[in-house]
Write a structure and sequence with these properties.
Layout lengths: L8 H18 L5 H10 L3 H5 L4 H26 L5 H18 L2 H12 L11 E5 H4 L3 H4 L3 H7 L3 E5 L2 E3 L10 E7 L6 H13 L3 E7 L2 E3 L3 H7 L3 H4 L4 E2 L3 H7 L14 E4 L4 E4 L6 E3 L5 H16 L4 E5 L16 H17 L4 E4 L5 H4 L15 E3 L1 H13 L3 H8 L9 E5 L12 H6 L4 H12 L11 E5 L6 E4 L2 H4 L2 H6 L3 H19 L4 E5 L16 H4 L12 H5 L7 H17 L10 E4 L6 E6 L6 E6 L5 E4 L1 H5 L6 E2 L4 E2 L6 E4 L4 E4 L1
Helix pairs in contact: 2-4, 2-5, 4-15, 5-14, 14-15, 17-18, 23-26
The structure holds alpha-D-glucopyranose.
The site of alpha-D-glucopyranose has 10 residues, from loops.
Length: 674
């Protein structure tokens, strides 16, 4: 415990006045225990902040007081049992103060802007664009050559991939980090990152990068020290003398990469210990029960935020806490830790938002926004994996009943968050379809998942898709799928077969998907190239570092010649780009698509049509999508019941013809009805 040493009684009196004023002002925000903890932790803050203007110091203190309860409640269940908990909290508060002092003025201004507009990321004008820097521009410094392109598309947020230094050779697409602080030398320098962030910010775009929380590379200095026998660093990982604990854990653990890396533990020859490696053998899981790991990562987070990164994608968060007898995913402590991490950002770098990457079942997924005591405190946005999977499922089966069922069962989200809605990302697609959802619409879950894999691998008779199987799991029979949006939607096959009719259908499917993710209320995330219909890249095997990982099939290099033809409606890329741009433009003017408002699934009973209602105090926006290549007829009574008064389609800017309460839907039609 740290005691203040007051040299004079006046100083002591002055301090006690400050403390009671503080206590008085924040009594409603802080429990007695949290207040006591904060007062102890506060001791070093004064001198850490002393170089700042008084108003600037006050701002930090206000934020600290405002959010400290969340921080305390996140960390107490995880580290509260430790004798050094108070010291830990003191170090953490000091770390926050120091990084606040280092924060550049323009970012502090952004902090204030976002204090004033905490829902900035929920706005209907948000559009994310996601790319590997290597594939988009080669280098960070070259991304700047394409800012007009990003701005024209309407991007307000870019997710840059593989930014921090990763190991040479196989590196899981950059997710095996050897240095969390240094930009990968193949892409440029930290100065390049900082100046790119500044340029993007000047155009109103946020910058997201990955924070790989669950593991680092076996070549990271922490892991190297652990291999060499340093006990301090061995405690950063899960290392076991023999197989007894690993075997006991294995009984209930699934395998993430059953083909690349069967099992969850790897024998490290140097230390002679078994190391927890959920993903590849070269990715060592970090031990978050060690508060040193928490402090290290928080410092990394602040450093990057001070370089201008304003969204962190928290990679593979579900795996951050291990518990014997479970699958060691989505454990309660994960949410405590995430709440604490987010609170650290809220206090020190409030412009920063957190995005959870948790590809888990719906009931668990919702916990990444916080349920119960974590309500609304865990992350700002998370991937809507189920929407993505259901899109592909309905597209293959031309049947929307499973989609309607699974998505209407989805738990409600807090109104302070946003879904990241997407069709494709840099990863494979896993068929996360619950058996009971499948059963409730008369399907067998395993059989349907099997059908989807065969369909998208292009094996199923009559399939339009061209994709590849990723990670066949012999134990469960699961086969995940690779492929770009365009290739999986039929464009590759249509071009190969030289069929203009099939090209038309593929384009309609792609635009149906874009309309779905843009019309959901959330942040639509466009994976690079999907705006132009880039096809699978089968040449990834010629690049030695990519050859071993077939996900590179759907991470093609940007085709700037196609991009140059984006306004030419005689080209496929022109039709796709123009179609997407139109959807994005309409979206920006649809306040119902602000993520804060509820999105309800409407069950119209129609087996080929998917319908949802975006609620808004000024009126509902209903989205109607025909998932089949034939004309469908929909009875509009359920739309009227869901609050639609006049049938006007915002996407085509036309009144919809109604005949005997029925409307006609063209193949793959998409309507946004007010
Ligand atoms: C995330 C990434 C994926 C990576 C994994 C392990 O799921 O998106 O690409 O393989 O985490 O880091």
């Amino acid at each position: 415990m740290i005691q203040q040493d007051f040299s004079t009684s006046e100083q002591a009196a002055e301090e006690s006045v400050k403390v009671s004023a503080f206590r008085h002002r924040h009594a409603h925000l802080l429990s007695a225990a949290a207040l006591a903890c904060l007062q102890k932790a506060n001791s070093g803050v004064e001198s850490a902040l002393s170089s700042l203007e008084v108003r600037d110091q006050q701002l930090f203190r206000l934020r600290l007081a405002r959010w400290f309860q969340n921080l305390y409640e996140g960390l107490l269940p995880v580290y509260g049992q430790r004798a050094d908990f108070d010291d830990f909290m003191e170090r953490l508060v000091l770390l926050m103060a120091r990084h606040y002092v280092q924060r550049p003025d323009d970012l502090k201004l952004l902090d204030v802007e976002r204090d004033l507009e905490p829902d900035w990321f929920q706005h209907e004008s948000m559009l994310g664009y996601v790319f590997y820097v290597e594939q988009f521009a080669g280098k960070l410094s070259k991304v700047g050559d394409h800012l007009d392109y990003l701005e024209e598309m309407g991007a307000s947020y870019v997710h840059l991939m593989k930014v921090m230094q990763s190991r040479d050779g196989e590196n899981d697409g950059g997710y095996a980090v050897t240095d969390y602080r240094r930009v990968d030398s193949s892409l440029g320098t930290n100065e390049d990152l900082e100046s790119l962030c500044t340029d993007l910010r000047a155009r109103g775009m946020s910058v997201c990068i990955d924070l790989v929380l669950n593991h680092c590379a076996q070549e990271h200095p922490w892991a190297l020290a652990a291999q060499a026998g340093d006990a301090h660093y061995q405690d950063y990982f899960y290392m076991y003398e023999d197989r007894s604990l690993p075997d006991a854990f294995e009984r209930t653990l699934p395998e993430v990469f059953p083909e690349f890396a069967p099992g969850n533990f790897t024998l490290d020859e140097k230390s002679g210990k078994w190391v927890w490696t959920t993903f590849n053998h070269f990715q060592w899981d970090l031990n978050w029960s060690n508060p040193e790991v928490f402090l290290e990562i928080v410092e990394v987070m602040f450093d990057l935020a001070n370089q201008g990164v304003d969204v962190f994608r928290l990679d593979a968060v579900a795996f951050m806490w291990k518990r014997m007898g479970t699958d060691s995913q989505n454990q309660e402590e994960v949410f405590d830790l995430m709440q604490a991490l987010r609170t650290c950002s809220r206090i020190t770098t409030p412009a920063v938002a957190h995005k959870a990457e948790a590809i888990v079942a719906p009931d668990d997924l919702i916990r990444y926004f916080g349920v119960g005591r974590h309500h609304g405190k865990v992350s700002n946005f998370a991937y809507h994996n189920s929407l993505m999977v259901q899109f592909w499922s309905s597209l293959a089966s031309r049947d929307t009943r499973l989609m309607t069922r699974a998505l209407s069962e989805f738990p409600r989200t807090p109104n302070s968050i946003a879904w990241g809605t997407y069709l494709r990302c840099h990863d494979d697609i896993g068929w996360a379809i619950a058996d009971d959802d499948a059963e409730s619409v008369g399907l067998n879950g395993a059989a349907h998942r099997h059908f989807l894999s065969s369909f998208y691998a292009g094996e199923f008779e009559g399939s339009f898709a061209r994709g590849g199987v990723f990670q066949f799991n012999r134990a469960t029979g699961d086969r995940r799928i690779n492929g770009t949006l365009a290739s999986l939607s039929g464009l590759e096959q249509a071009i190969e077969w030289g069929s203009p009719e099939l090209v038309d259908l593929a384009i309609e499917r792609i635009l149906l998907g874009h309309a779905l993710i843009c019309g959901f209320g959330g942040i639509p995330l466009i994976y690079m190239g999907d705006e132009l219909g880039l096809l699978n890249d089968y040449h990834y095997i010629d690049t030695p570092d990519h050859a071993g990982d077939s996900r590179w099939m759907h991470r093609p290099a940007m085709d700037w010649e196609k991009a140059d033809r984006r306004h030419d409606l005689n080209t496929i890329e022109g039709r796709l780009y123009t179609g997407l741009s139109h959807i994005v433009r309409v979206r920006r003017k649809a306040s119902q698509l602000n993520a804060r408002y509820d999105t309800d699934i409407v069950d119209t009973g129609h087996p080929h049509v998917f319908t949802l209602a975006n609620r808004h105090p000024l009126g509902t926006l209903a989205c109607v999508y025909n998932f089949s290549e034939s004309t469908q007829y929909l009875n509009v009574q359920p739309l009227y019941e869901s609050g639609i008064v006049e049938l006007y389609d915002k996407l085509s800017a036309r009144e919809i013809n109604v005949y005997n309460d029925v409307i006609e839907l063209a193949p793959y039609a998409r309507l946004w009805v007010t």
